[in-house]
């Protein structure tokens, strides 16, 4: 029970990696707040966790669009009113788009930066402010990507947003550690989630491949021998939220089966 009686907020927590982390936090004793833009997915996730034995009184769902600062503030206030504060934040909400450099639209660029960078930063700022006011420190985990470690021809904007997440993780960590708030990140590699069906279809379109081929190839290219699974990120997220990582600050942990070494 490494997170016993901690209060954890997971944005984008209703599916994929976010849901896997939410589940693991509950199993480690935390009260878990699933913050997601999709109310239906929130309801499904809460139902699934309760069916698995998680107590309803230790779960909370909040519809949250991280592009809306008023919604962010309302989320922080609502969680504080329900549970008394926030000890852990996982900034997981993000979107992905793909197109050749010459076809990137302003709308796609703005949407990715608004959610992946601006939304992440102002969610962090609001939660960190509440942590400072409470005076008990905390842990913040920002989800980046191996795409933030290197450029990719068809994913220029997404790569840039995830590189920005790594940079913000470092800067925010240095700015908040004096308050006992540890900020770190996780950089997943290729992860087998429902979103990869959309990604595969985009690769099929731009690289003239059969559907399913790109997904198969990227999985085979991982040194570990397979794509990541959402549950592969639960343990690292528990570690970075717990006292076991108390002296780890401003780091972004690669969890990618050996795809990237740094």
What are the key terms here?
262 residues; Rossmann fold; 2 domains; 8 helices; D-sorbitol dehydrogenase (Acceptor); quinone binding; oxidoreductase activity, acting on the CH-OH group of donors, NAD or NADP as acceptor; oxidoreductase; NAD(P)-bd_dom_sf
Descriptive account of the structure:
With 262 residues, the chain is an alpha/beta fold. 46% of the residues lie in helices and 15% in strands. The chain is built from 8 helices and 7 strands, in the order βαβαβαβαβαβαααβ. The chain has helices at 16-27, 39-51, 69-83, 106-134, 156-176, 195-207, 213-221, 234-241; strands at residues 7-11, 31-36, 59-63, 88-91, 138-143, 181-188, 252-255. α5 (156-176) links the parallel β5 and β6. It is globular and about 55 Å long. The protein starts with 6 loop residues before the first strand and ends in a 7-residue tail after the last strand. The relative contact order is 0.14.
């Amino acid at each position: 029970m490494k997170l016993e009686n901690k209060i954890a907020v997971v944005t984008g927590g209703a599916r994929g990696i976010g849901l896997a982390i939410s589940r693991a936090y509950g199993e480690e004793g935390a009260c878990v707040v699933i913050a997601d833009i999709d109310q239906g997915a929130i309801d499904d996730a809460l139902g699934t966790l309760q069916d698995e034995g998680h107590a309803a009184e230790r779960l909370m769902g909040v519809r949250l669009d991280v592009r809306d600062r008023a919604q962010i503030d309302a989320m922080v206030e609502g969680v504080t009113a329900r549970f008394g504060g926030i000890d852990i934040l996982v900034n997981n909400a993000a979107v992905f788009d793909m197109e050749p450099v010459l076809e990137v639209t302003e709308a796609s660029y703005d949407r990715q930066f608004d959610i992946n960078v601006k939304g992440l930063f102002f969610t962090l700022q609001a939660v960190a402010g509440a942590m400072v006011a409470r005076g008990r420190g905390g842990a913040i985990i920002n989800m980046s990507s191996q795409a933030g470690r290197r450029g990719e021809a068809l994913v220029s904007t997404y790569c840039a947003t995830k590189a920005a997440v790594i940079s913000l993780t470092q800067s925010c960590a240095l700015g908040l550690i004096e308050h006992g708030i540890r900020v770190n990140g996780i950089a997943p590699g290729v992860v087998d989630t429902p979103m990869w069906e959309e990604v595969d279809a985009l690769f099929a379109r731009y690289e003239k491949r059969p559907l399913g081929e790109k997904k198969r190839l990227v999985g085979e290219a991982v040194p570990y021998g397979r794509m990541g699974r959402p549950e592969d990120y639960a343990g690292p997220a528990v570690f970075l939220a717990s006292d076991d990582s108390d002296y780890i600050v401003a780091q972004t942990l690669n969890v990618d089966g050996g795809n990237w070494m740094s």
